[in-house]
């Protein structure tokens, strides 16, 4: 009975995410509808990015300079050239902006990029599973219901413009969500011999052309 009462008092929070555009370079759109009025609180989505997808910290810094997005990335130093099998998970705290069409709705978007994967056997695609974000609230001037919200272990400020960490809260009951799938093109292992042969042939041919040009026009 107590559990039912708490769930009734804590109206459902919904979170949805969409991967816009096509190819390796996409936009991640996160939309949240709170079950209650935020009351001036900062709203954020904590997104865990698997090794197959990443946010470029340099691109993120440029976007923040132009006030196009607000986010904190952990860690903030990333090898953007690393393939999927040499990368690691990332944590993105994406600050959401109010949606003018809905009083309890918030949204934000950030560019994400797929990493190259190992060649696969019998398939031309690799699947990257993107779990639903965790909804977080940071209220500096108001109190959240202890029945509905619990302190979250997030060491981050209430906004990207502030450097002082504050207390974030997450919902005590899981919000409605769905996972997202990113399909990344990969090479076929069956083509390995052909690719190696063509690469070797191209290398020898180009090296020969460079050597011939150097002998003909060079001064030794």
Automatic annotation (TrEMBL):
<keyword id="KW-0325">Glycoprotein</keyword>
<comment type="pathway">
    <text>Glycolipid biosynthesis; glycosylphosphatidylinositol-anchor biosynthesis.</text>
</comment>
<keyword id="KW-0472">Membrane</keyword>
<dbReference type="InterPro" id="IPR013233">
    <property type="entry name" value="PIG-X/PBN1"/>
</dbReference>
<dbReference type="InterPro" id="IPR040039">
    <property type="entry name" value="PIGX"/>
</dbReference>
<comment type="similarity">
    <text>Belongs to the PIGX family.</text>
</comment>
<comment type="function">
    <text>Stabilizing subunit of the glycosylphosphatidylinositol-mannosyltransferase I complex which catalyzes the transfer of the first mannose, via an alpha-1,4 bond from a dolichol-phosphate-mannose (Dol-P-Man) to the glucosaminyl acyl phosphatidylinositol (GlcN-(acyl)PI) intermediate to generate alpha-D-Man-(1-&gt;4)-alpha-D-GlcN-(1-&gt;6)-(1-radyl,2-acyl-sn-glycero-3-phospho)-2-acyl-inositol and participates in the sixth step of the glycosylphosphatidylinositol-anchor biosynthesis. Probably acts by stabilizing the mannosyltransferase PIGM.</text>
</comment>
<keyword id="KW-0256">Endoplasmic reticulum</keyword>
<feature type="transmembrane region" description="Helical">
    <location>
        <begin position="192"/>
        <end position="215"/>
    </location>
</feature>
<keyword id="KW-0812">Transmembrane</keyword>
<keyword id="KW-1133">Transmembrane helix</keyword>
<protein>
    <recommendedName>
        <fullName>Phosphatidylinositol-glycan biosynthesis class X protein</fullName>
    </recommendedName>
</protein>
<dbReference type="GO" id="GO:0006506">
    <property type="term" value="P:GPI anchor biosynthetic process"/>
</dbReference>
<dbReference type="GO" id="GO:0005789">
    <property type="term" value="C:endoplasmic reticulum membrane"/>
</dbReference>
<keyword id="KW-0337">GPI-anchor biosynthesis</keyword>
<dbReference type="Pfam" id="PF08320">
    <property type="entry name" value="PIG-X"/>
</dbReference>
């Amino acid at each position: 009975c107590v559990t039912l009462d708490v769930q009734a008092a804590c109206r459902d929070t919904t979170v949805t995410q969409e991967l816009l555009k096509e190819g390796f370079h996409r936009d991640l759109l996160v939309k949240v509808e709170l079950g209650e009025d935020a009351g001036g609180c900062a709203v954020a989505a904590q997104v865990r990015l698997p090794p197959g997808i990443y946010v470029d910290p340099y691109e993120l810094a440029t976007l923040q300079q132009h006030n196009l997005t607000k986010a904190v990335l952990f860690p903030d130093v990333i090898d953007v050239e690393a393939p999927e099998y040499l990368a690691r998970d990332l944590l993105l705290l994406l600050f959401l902006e109010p949606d003018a069409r809905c009083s309890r709705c918030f949204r934000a978007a950030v560019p994400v990029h797929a990493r190259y994967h190992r060649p696969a056997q019998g398939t031309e695609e690799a699947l990257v599973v993107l779990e639903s974000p965790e909804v977080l609230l940071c209220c500096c001037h108001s109190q959240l219901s202890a029945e509905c919200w619990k302190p979250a272990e997030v060491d981050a400020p209430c906004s990207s413009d502030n450097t002082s960490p504050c207390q974030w809260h997450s919902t005590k009951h899981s919000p409605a969500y769905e996972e997202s799938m990113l399909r990344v093109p990969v090479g076929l292992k069956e083509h390995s011999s052909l690719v190696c042969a063509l690469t070797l042939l191209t290398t020898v041919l180009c090296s020969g052309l460079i050597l011939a040009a150097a002998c003909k026009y060079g001064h030794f």
